[in-house]
Amino acid sequence: MTISRLVSSESASDVLTARFREVFGASSCIFRAPGRVNVVGEHTDYNDGFVMPAAIQFYTWVAGEKRGDRVLEVYSEHFDEKISLPLDALAGPHRGHWSDFIRGVAAVLQNARYKLAGANLVVHGEVPLGAGLSSSASLEVATALALISLSGFDVPRLELVKLCQKAEHEYVGTRCGIMDQYTAVFGTAGHALMLDCRSLEYQMLPIPQDVRLVVCNSMVKHELASGEYNRRRADCEEAVKLLQPHLLGISALRDVAVADLEAWKQVLPATVYRRCRHVVTENQRVLAAAKALQSGDADRFGRLMYQSHASLRDDYQVSCKELDLLVDLASSSSSVYGARMTGGGFGGCTVNLLRADASDSFTEHISQAYLEVTGIIPEIYVCEPVQGAQA
Ligand code: GLA
């Protein structure tokens, strides 16, 4: 019952070129941007903290061709739908439609004074939607690259990352951190990135040959999660305001040490305190995990992953019973070093660190056990860290 999703890059670009020809005629450019798995460091990015994502081998592809007018005509393969967006009338609230991402990216680029040319675009996505593997950021980044290339601009890569994040805030309505867009652009083959979300500097951490990152998709969609996500972020911001009079100089939870949080917990509502406890301990786990990876200590790394999951489940309260089950099932296998939910939560995927020689037996075991309990067939992806967005 091994389920794997392996779309070779070549076949995806062939599919896209053929589709483009069908819908619009010939295309002049194709860009792709990868999804990501976050190995450890969840809900820390919008607290100026640390994360450890890796770009993975599922891409969103965007093929494009310039038009003579000021219109974007966009066809989505997934939704089998074509929409039209006038470049001079992009403003407006989010509509809960896939085109919000395209409209948002085009609007923020233009507001940043990159006056775009009209274009025909075809979007083809391999990143599972609503699975916490960052299909949104990969769509934003691939779209942005296609639009700026067709318009003849060169946008610095970090600016591109920030503009895509802004598009998601303003046109999709999720006040996300910077991790996903950053990884879609700066991901490095064979490595996880240890990203400092304050300085926006990263360190490349090689994934050792003898371990694998395996993602288990619970197939539970996190569609309703953006309200909860924004609420978590608001809790963290409230905590900073309440702690500031007592902890001089702090501007984000990144600046709060575990001991300081304990010392001032009485100024925080009980739930907000628990949210903070997750964030401040998670930042420490990322730093410890980076050291463990560098010294080849997979056991220690794995323990930190389990601790991260428990903290997300109990303190941050963004897990769900299917994700907890996948982590429990993984923990009963001796070839697994660690497992945790990954991404925003409320469904989606777990990430598992395991012995490289055990990925087939692990896949078999977890698929069967998960199906028996839930009646749901999970998808299991053995991940390869890949390079960020490219033409
Ligand atoms: C989503 C957001 C990210 C990050 C994660 C949680 O993927 O887009 O910025 O906050 O959730 O770690």
**Cofactors, ions and other ligands in the entry:** alpha-D-galactopyranose
Q: Under CATH, the topology of the largest domain is which?
A: Ribosomal Protein S5, domain 2
- CATH class of the largest domain, named Alpha Beta
Count of strand segments: 11
Number of helices: 11
* Major β-sheet profile: 7 strands, mixed
SS-based class: alpha+beta
Order of helices and strands: HEEEEHEHHHEEEHHHHHEEHE
Provide the residue-averaged pLDDT. Answer: 95
Overall morphology: globular
Task: Kindly describe this structure.
The protein has helices at 9-24, 99-111, 135-151, 157-172, 179-186, 225-243, 258-263, 270-294, 298-316, 321-331, 359-374, and strands at 29-40, 50-66, 71-76, 81-86, 119-125, 191-196, 201-206, 211-217, 336-342, 349-355, 379-383. It has two domains: 9-204, 2-Layer Sandwich (Ribosomal Protein S5, domain 2), CATH 3.30.230.10; 208-383, Alpha-Beta Plaits, CATH 3.30.70.890. β9 and β10 (349-355) form a beta hairpin. α2 (99-111) packs across α3, α4 packs antiparallel against α5 (179-186) and α10 crosses α11 (359-374). The model is unreliable at 1-7 (pLDDT under 50). The chain has eleven helices and eleven strands. The chain is α+β, with helices and mostly antiparallel strands. The radius of gyration is 21 Å and the shape is globular. The protein is 42% helix and 22% strand. The longest helix has 25 residues, at 270-294. Alpha-D-galactopyranose (GLA) is lined by residues 38, 42-43, 45-46, 134, 176-177, 179-180, 343-344.
